[in-house]
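User: quick one, sequence for these tokens?
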């Protein structure tokens, strides 16, 4: 499995193209802008992007959804609890002096009965509310895509709409930290890390 990282959008978010080499199936995790490098990678290598999977609904992770759904011919999925976040994108961007004519459109939702795969690999959805109510992480073949729930030595902020620190603490300490220590973590911003490293060095271990 290949993981390609693309830094995109107004707040330098990580977008990940995860590729199953054998089947040439792929998934795009988070979608911060129309990123030509991703489009070229897919088209030049004959890849089939099956899904665009969103870790949460904040504007800096979803601004490219409309364009990339069309370019990649792939549906975008999010937890329904974060749909209101996505529908607030244009008003939030306006506060920064940036005009967004049309909000991102996501009509597919992550539910317990939805299964995601690329090749013979299962994409496990892990509910991790706290940064937002509908925040999720994705576990693929020992690699965790943690969005803004877990960063290297830090965690996501909880002072925005839908944030809840107690829920975030539980999501990190009682859910993500139960994963294998060797699990590589690919966060929504910043460098990659591992679960084992974060259990020893993350700021959240100092709470409660």
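Assistant:
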């Amino acid at each position: 499995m290949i993981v390609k990282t693309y830094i995109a959008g107004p707040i330098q978010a990580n977008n990940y193209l995860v590729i199953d080499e054998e089947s040439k199936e792929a998934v795009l995790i988070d979608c911060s802008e129309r990123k030509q490098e991703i489009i070229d990678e897919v088209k030049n290598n004959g890849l089939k992007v099956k899904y665009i999977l969103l870790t949460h609904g904040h504007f800096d992770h979803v601004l490219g959804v409309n364009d990339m759904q069309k370019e990649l011919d792939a549906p975008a999925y999010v937890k329904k609890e974060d749909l209101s976040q996505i529908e607030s994108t244009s008003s939030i961007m306006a506060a920064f002096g940036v005009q967004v004519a049309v909000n991102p459109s996501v009509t597919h939702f992550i539910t317990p009965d939805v299964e995601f795969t690329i090749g013979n690999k299962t994409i496990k959805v892990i509910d991790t509310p706290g940064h937002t109510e509908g925040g999720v992480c994705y576990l693929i073949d020992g690699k965790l895509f943690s969005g803004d729930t877990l960063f290297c030595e830090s965690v996501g902020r909880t002072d925005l709409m839908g944030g809840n620190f107690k829920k975030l603490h539980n999501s990190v300490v009682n859910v993500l930290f139960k994963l294998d220590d060797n699990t590589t973590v690919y966060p929504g911003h910043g460098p990659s890390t591992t679960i084992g490293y974060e259990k020893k060095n993350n700021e959240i271990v100092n709470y409660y």
